[in-house]
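Exercise 7b. Backbone tokens:
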């Protein structure tokens, strides 16, 4: 029943792009826009645009590398191709898996909390139940998982577009020139502080590369999918931020635990229930993405010979890494039972930014060694260099903020 066969290439550009967009959107933007407004004030829209540039530099490096090496456990492969340090590749890969397990465990508890508001069910039972359900989908097939993620992503997009639509009259009051001008009251430091926080909303595109072995023509499709996912998220974030900051003061947005609900209420349309349901959908989407990401990294590391070979076993019928998926799923179940629901956004981002620096340096080294490659996308050498500098500045800002708090 289980054999040494390859993963099934079943994903085209639309599904991969929606898979990535859903991972980027997550549930965070429904709260994060208020926190960014509390820091960046009237420069909230500009803060999101600056954050997109920060994330975009890393995304462009991923776009070239995903075309050069379209493999599972992609980041670990990139690092090995550059540094030839097996321990570094394994350490980074395992760190990403552990981060995904922790994130999914917290998301499962978040889902169970939403569910308990509608159905009287214990949090543990709800969180374990949803993880097991998503595990069955992930084992069944990548195409089924991607389709489910795509449907959930479309629902998330609809939720954000509903907020924009209810407050559409706000666009008539937007000062376009003012959007691109740094307010003296905020200053460059306030703008950058808001941008660094908004950067968290763009994290997620880096997980896309781990499904490369299940993508049709990945050398062409992966770079395009990453670009489309980041572009889609940017457009949605900017539209939402424009409506939110016109209709509601930054102070009110920052004080609200559900800022987009507040925006819709100010616009005269109470869609709290709809946004609550979509919040549940976003947590499910996040869980399945993290489950796929973790299992594909373990599979990829094992396929390279860096972890036990049984983790690279592919189910003959489903063509998915069943044993790696089960390992990640069981870890998530234990995580949601044992861990408290604590936000690890800053620690996760610090870890990812450190990995982003390594990815940029990897691309610099690889471009010098191998100027020609079989991918369809190439970036100028200044892109990864700029990515190193921007990511290092972001880490420095976080460390200074923690030390001064």
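Sequence design result:
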């Amino acid at each position: 029943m289980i054999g040494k066969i390859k993963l099934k290439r079943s994903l085209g550009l639309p599904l991969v792009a929606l898979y990535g967009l859903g991972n980027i959107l997550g549930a965070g933007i429904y709260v994060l826009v208020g926190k960014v407004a509390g820091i960046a004030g009237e420069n909230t829209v500009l803060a999101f645009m600056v954050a997109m540039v920060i994330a975009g530099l890393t995304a462009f490096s991923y776009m070239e590398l995903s075309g050069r090496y379209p493999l599972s456990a992609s980041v670990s492969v990139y690092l090995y191709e550059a540094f030839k340090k097996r321990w570094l590749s394994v350490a980074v890969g395992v760190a990403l898996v552990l981060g995904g397990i922790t994130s999914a465990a917290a998301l499962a508890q978040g889902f169970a909390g939403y569910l308990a508001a509608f159905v009287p069910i214990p949090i543990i039972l709800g969180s374990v139940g949803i993880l097991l359900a998503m595990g069955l989908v992930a084992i069944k097939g990548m195409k089924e998982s991607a389709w489910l993620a795509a449907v959930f992503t479309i629902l998330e997009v609809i939720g954000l577009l509903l907020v924009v639509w209810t407050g559409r009259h706000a666009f008539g009051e937007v000062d376009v020139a003012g959007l691109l001008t740094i307010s003296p009251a905020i200053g460059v430091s306030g703008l950058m502080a808001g941008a660094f926080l908004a950067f968290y909303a763009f994290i997620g595109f880096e997980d896309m590369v781990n499904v490369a072995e299940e993508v049709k023509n990945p050398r062409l499709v992966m770079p395009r999918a990453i670009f489309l996912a980041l572009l889609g998220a940017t457009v949605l974030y900017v539209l939402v931020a424009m409506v939110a900051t016109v209709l509601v003061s930054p102070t009110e947005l920052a004080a609200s635990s559900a800022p987009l609900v507040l925006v819709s209420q100010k616009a005269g349309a109470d869609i709290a229930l709809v946004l609550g349901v979509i919040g549940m959908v976003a947590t499910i989407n996040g869980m399945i993405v993290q489950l796929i990401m973790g299992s594909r990294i373990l599979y990829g590391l094992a396929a390279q010979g860096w972890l036990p070979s049984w983790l690279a076993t592919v189910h003959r019928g489903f063509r998915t890494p069943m044993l790696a998926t089960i390992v990640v799923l069981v870890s998530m179940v234990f995580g949601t039972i044992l861990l408290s629901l604590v936000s690890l956004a800053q620690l996760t981002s610090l870890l990812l930014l450190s990995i982003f620096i390594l990815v940029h340096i990897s691309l610099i080294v690889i471009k010098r060694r191998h100027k020609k490659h079989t991918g369809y996308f190439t970036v100028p050498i200044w892109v990864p260099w700029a990515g190193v500098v921007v990511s290092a500045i972001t880490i420095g800002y976080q460390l200074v903020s923690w030390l001064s708090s």
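Instructor comment: DSSP finds 16 helices and two strands in the chain. The domain at 2-404 is CATH 1.20.1740.10 (Amino acid/polyamine transporter I).
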